Amino acid sequence: MGPPISALPAPAGATPTPQPSSAARRRRLPLVLAAVLVLVLATVGVVITRPGPVAGWLGDDAAGGPTAGGVPPDPAPSEVLAGPDSNAPVPTPEGVRAVLDPLVGVAALGDRVNVSVADVITGQTLFDKGADDGTVPASVTKLVTAVTVLAARGPGYRIPTRAVAGAKAGEVVIVGGGDPTLAIDKKGYYPGAARLDDLAAQVRSALGGTPPTSVTVDGSVYSGPVYGPGWDDDIPTGGSGGAVTALMTDGARTDPGVEHGSAQRFAEPDLAAGKAFARLLGVPTDAVRRGSAPAQAAAGPSPAPGTELGVVQSPPLIRLVDVMISESDNLVAEALARQVALARNQPASFDGGAAAMDAEVAELGLPADEISVSDGSGLSRRNRISPSLLTDLIRLAASPDHPELAGVFGGLPVGGWSGTLNERYRNTAGTAAGAGSVRAKTGTLTQVHSIAGLVTTADGRLLTFAVLTDKVPGGRETAQPALDRITAALAGCGCG
C-alpha cells in the first residue's frame, strides 16, 4: 500500500506563503517536509501493510499465516493512496472557499462548524472558519495523545508489567505499569501483547520449589479517579470506555474474543487481572488483594521482599498508537496519556495526563493556548482543541525535524477501506472522491462530530484538514455524510 505521505518533497528554495491575519500569531512550522514515513516506521520494527483491523498488527507471529480462527489472511492490498506530487498546483484560498462554503453551512452540521485546511508542504492556510476557536473534538483528541506520547516516550518504548516477591513468604506482587493490551494467554484480544502466563512461568522459575500462596495487585503507579471528568454517565457501562487502572487484561474486556468496538468491561480490571494471574500460579482467587510492592530488602529469606521475579513488556508504543487511532480504542488512549504524564514526572492520573499533554504541545512549538484537555481519549466534553492546532500538529508530525512523530500516520483510517472510515465514502452521494484519498481520525459524541487528517487532491496536492462541530442538531446519520462531503470535495477538486 502506498502511504499517504510516502516521501514529502523538499523543493529547493521553497518559501512560505503569507498567512491570514487570524493565523499571524501562530508559531511557524518547518516548511521543508521530507519525512519518509515507511522508513521511519521501519526503524522501530514496524511494517504497516494495511491500516487495520487490529489483528495481525501487534506481533510477527500474526503476519503471513492463518489467523487464530483459521481464517486465511487478507490478500496483498493494491495501492490505495498515491504519493503526493510536489509539482502539483497549490489550491487557492478562493477556490477552496468556493467549494467548501456551501458544504460547511449545511443545517446538518449545526451553527458551530470550525474548519482549518492547509497545504502540507508550504503551510499556506487555504480555508479558515473559526480555525483558532477551541471546539469539543471527541476522539480526534487521540491525534494529540499520539503525538505527545511519541514525543515524550519515543516510538520504541515498551510498558512493563512486573512481579516481585512480597513481604510475606509465598506472596507474589504483580505491579501494573499501565499496559492496557496485556493478555492472559495466547488468546488475548491484542495479538502480540505481553502475557500473564509468560509472567507466571518466570515467577515459578524464580521461586524454585517455593509455592506461591497469595497475590497482591499493585496499581499505585496510577492515581486519582478511574473515570474521566466530563464523561457521559453511560460511558463506564456502555462498552466504549471503562475504569482506567494500571493493571488490566485485554483492555478490561470480559471476553477477549469479541469483535472490535463496544464490549463488556470489568468494573475492577486490576482485581480481575490479579485473579487471572493467581489462577495461573495455582493460587486461590480469594487470596488476591490490592496492596503495594515492598521496597527491595537488603537481606532476608530467599527471595528477599521486593526481589523481581519476572517482567513482561508491551509492544512498542508505535504499535499501541496504531491500535488507538485505527480502532479509536479509548482505554489504550487513556493509558498512553498517562505515559506522557510519567515521562514528564507528573501524576499518572486524568489531571496529570492532561497537564503533561498540554506541556508537551507547548514544548513542540504548537500554540498551547488553543488546547485544553481533560483526558486522552476524547470522551470528555470538557476538551477543547482548535482546528488549526490539529492541522499544525499533522504538519509537524510530517516534519523531518521530528521523525519520532511520523508513527501517527500508520494507523490513520483510509476512507472507504479501513478502521472507523471503512464504511464511509462508499454509498453516500457526493462522497465517492474521498474513498482512498482521505486518511483521517474521526470523533463522535452526542451533538459532536469531527474529522481531521490528510487528503490528496485531484491534482495530487497533499492537504491537511480539521473539521470540528459541537452543536449538531441531529445524529450521525446526517452529520457524518455532511463531514464526508467536505473532505471528498477537497479530494475531488483542483480548487485553483
Features:
alpha+beta, about 15% strand, 12 strands, five-stranded mixed sheet, five-stranded antiparallel sheet, about 500 residues
Describe this structure in words.
- By secondary structure, the chain is an alpha+beta fold.
- It has 11 helices and 12 strands.
- The strands form 3 sheets. Strands 2-1-12-11-10 form a 5-stranded antiparallel sheet, with helices on both faces. The chain has a 5-stranded mixed sheet with strand order 6-5-4-3-7, covered by helices on one side.
- Helix 3 (141-153) runs parallel beside helix 8 (330-343), helix 4 (196-207) packs across helix 6 (269-281) and helix 8 packs across helix 9.
- It is elongated, with a radius of gyration of 23 Å.
- The two termini are 29 Å apart.
- Residues 1-72 and 74-79 have low confidence and may be disordered.
- Figure out the total of helices: 11
Principal-axes shape call: elongated
Which whole number gives the mean pLDDT? Answer: 86
- Uncertain runs: 1-72, 74-79
